[in-house]
């Protein structure tokens, strides 16, 4: 029985290590791309010179599509490639709502990274640290998905319910440990 527990713990640590590294990379990319997005909004707001780009934001539930005109700095170009257009497209649009979603995407990835970091270091899934980060992850995931579509909202609510189940499991584990 103890051997099985150690095998499972080793698997959790190995998987968590991979997720932890991947999430760290995603955090860096999201911060860079989100920074470019916010910087372009500021650049446009200040009315500074640069290339005026029209970004069409298509949403399935809204007709017609929303068109944003942003003035982006010339240094967002690398050769003939406009780095900003790739970044803004991947981050979900150009408006304030997209900036809001970018911030919550970074928060969501950060909370997941913290949770997997604890698991990587050997914390059990029902520990207080893991369950609290899991709850924060689900709340930020829900806020990040607000306004996208109904299926993502339902998915967020289901994950939130699972986080409360993990918290209840943590309480049962603590009760079991104090009884023994």
SSE arrangement:
Blueprint: H1 2-46, E1 51-59, E2 62-72, E3 77-78, E4 81-82, H2 83-90, H3 96-120, H4 128-145, H5 150-179
Antiparallel strand pairs: 1-2, 3-4
Provide key terms for this protein.
180 residues; alpha+beta; 70% helix; elongated
Morphology call: elongated
Strand order of the largest sheet: 1-2
Task: Assign the structural class, choosing from mainly alpha, mainly beta, alpha/beta, alpha+beta, or little secondary structure.
Answer: alpha+beta
- Rounded to the nearest angstrom, the distance between the terminal CA atoms is 17 Å
Radius of gyration, CA atoms, in whole angstroms: 21 Å
Helices and strands, in N-to-C order?
HEEEEHHHH
> Taking all residues together, what is the mean pLDDT?
78
* Main beta-sheet strand count, sense and barrel state: 2 strands, antiparallel
Beta strand %? 5-15%
| Total count of helical runs of at least 4 residues | 5
Structural write-up:
The protein has 180 residues and is an alpha+beta fold. Helix content is 70%, strand content 13%. It has 5 helices and 4 strands. The chain has helices at residues 2-46, 83-90, 96-120, 128-145, 150-179; strands spanning 51-59, 62-72, 77-78, 81-82. The strands form 2 sheets. Strands 1-2 form a two-stranded antiparallel sheet. It has a two-stranded antiparallel ribbon with strand order 3-4. A hairpin with a 2-residue loop joins strand 3 and strand 4. Helix 1 (2-46) runs antiparallel to helix 3, helix 3 (96-120) runs antiparallel to helix 4 (128-145) and helix 4 (128-145) packs antiparallel against helix 5. It is elongated, with a radius of gyration of 21 Å. The mean pLDDT is 78.
């Amino acid at each position: 029985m103890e051997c099985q527990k150690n095998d499972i713990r080793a698997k959790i640590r190995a998987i968590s290590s991979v997720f932890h590294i991947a999430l760290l990379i995603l955090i860096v990319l999201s911060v860079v791309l989100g920074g470019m997005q916010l910087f372009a909004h500021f650049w446009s707001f200040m009315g500074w010179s640069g290339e005026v780009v029209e970004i069409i934001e298509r949403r399935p539930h809204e007709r017609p599509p929303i068109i944003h005109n942003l003035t982006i700095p010339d240094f967002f170009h690398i050769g003939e490639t406009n780095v900003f257009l790739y970044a803004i497209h991947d981050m979900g649009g150009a408006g304030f709502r997209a900036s809001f979603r970018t911030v919550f995407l970074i928060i969501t990835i950060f909370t997941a990274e913290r949770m997997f970091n604890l698991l990587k270091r050997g914390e059990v899934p029902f520990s207080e640290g893991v369950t609290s980060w899991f709850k924060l992850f689900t709340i930020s995931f829900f806020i990040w998905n607000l306004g996208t579509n109904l299926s993502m909202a339902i998915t967020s609510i289901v994950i939130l319910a699972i986080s409360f189940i993990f918290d209840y499991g943590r309480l049962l584990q603590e009760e079991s440990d104090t009884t023994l």
